[in-house]
Structure formats: C-alpha cells, structure tokens
Amino acid sequence: MPSARGKAKRKMPQYEIRVISKGPQLKKIGAKAFMDFINPFVGEKAYLSIQRKVTLRQEKEWLGKKAEEIDKGEQAEVLLFIDGKLAGNCDARKGELANQKHNVTFGLAVSRKWRGYGFGELLLRKGIAVAKKKFKPHRMWIEHDSENTVAARLYRKVGFVQAARLKHYSAHFGRYTDSCIMEYRGE
C-alpha cells in the first residue's frame, strides 16, 4: 500500500510494546540497553536534547532518576522492543513546577533502522492513552525542532497543533534553531 509520499509501506517486523509503570521494571532493562539505544542518535545528529554520547555510568545515574520519577507518579514510559532490543520510546512527563503539574509533555525517539514503519505513531498514540489514564492532564504538549519536518508531520497526524514557535531557542550542534511547541487537541 503506498504511503503519502508515494513509497510502498514497509512490512512491519515483530515487535513488543511495554508500558513501564514501576521503577524496577525500567531498571531491569538495564543501563547498557538504554546507552546502546541513545548513543547512535548523537552520531546522526538527531534532534534530541543530548549532543554527546553518554557513558555507562551516566546512563546508570539517568536510569536511577528516571525510575524514581516513575515511582513518584511523575512520568510514564512506553518502550518499543524489536528482536529483544530497545528500538523506541515515548515518555510522558508531568510539569515540573507546582503550578504546571496538570500539564504533560512528551518525548519520542525511534532508532533510525526502524523509522518509516509507523512505530513513532504507535508509540505516541500509546503514550497519549497512558498519560490520559495515569495523569488526567489539563493540557498535553510536545516540542520539536523547526527543521524536523518529519516529526511535525507525525505530531499533526496524531492530533497536535502548533501553539508557539520560539526563535533560535535550541542549540543543535553549534547552530541555533527554532523550537516549535505543539498542543494536543485530539483528532
């Protein structure tokens, strides 16, 4: 079946989606699996908040903090596994400040090898459903770099609309780019 860009859709491989609801579940996956997942994004200069490869020690620290936030009810995590390896994630985070706890923001990443199969949409839709149930948010937000048109297209498809554009807000490998804030309005 052709996609919107005229290319034939790829056959989706066998996969597993895991909703992580407790910190120990996250820790059981292990820091090495997360490090092996995140470091290739740095090499491709992906639009993520990190711009340097992480060490195993750094990833262990991050994993401990993330597990605590899940246990405190501040975050939810949806993970994609293909062939037993971490291949994607969608995280939902409650606002950090007391007057923003009613809002949820999302982060989304899919390994390069598995892009184009629809996993980003699958993860984000599952993340939205989990966030609605767990957090009952007033508003839900996602942010993307203005140059990341693939992300913008996906977010619009799922029900987000651009609410703001912050000029030269993000540093991306030595350049300043605009950051687009999108609000979930549903489909």
Distance between the termini: 23 Å
Which CATH architecture of one domain is right?
A: 3-Layer(aba) Sandwich
Helix content: 25-40%
- Run of helices and strands: EHHHEEEHEHEE
Task: Give the number of helices.
Answer: 5
The residue-averaged pLDDT reads: 89
Explain the overall architecture:
With 187 residues, the chain is α+β, with helices and mostly antiparallel strands. It has a domain at 16-138: 3-Layer(aba) Sandwich (Aminopeptidase). 34% of the residues lie in helices and 33% in strands. Strands 1-2-3-4-5-7-6 form a 7-stranded mixed sheet, with helices on both faces. Helix 1 (23-29) packs antiparallel against helix 3 and helix 4 packs across helix 5 (149-158). The model is unreliable at 1-6 (pLDDT under 50).
Features:
single chain, 187 residues, alpha+beta, Aminopeptidase, 7-stranded mixed β-sheet, 7 strands, globular
Quick structural gist:
The protein has 187 residues and is of the alpha+beta class.
Please give the structural blueprint:
Elements lengths: L15 E5 L2 H7 L1 H13 L12 H16 L3 E8 L2 E10 L8 E8 L8 H17 L3 E7 L3 H10 L1 E13 L2 E10 L3
Parallel strand pairs: 4-5
Antiparallel strand pairs: 1-2, 2-3, 3-4, 5-7, 6-7
Helix pairs in contact: 1-3, 2-3, 4-5
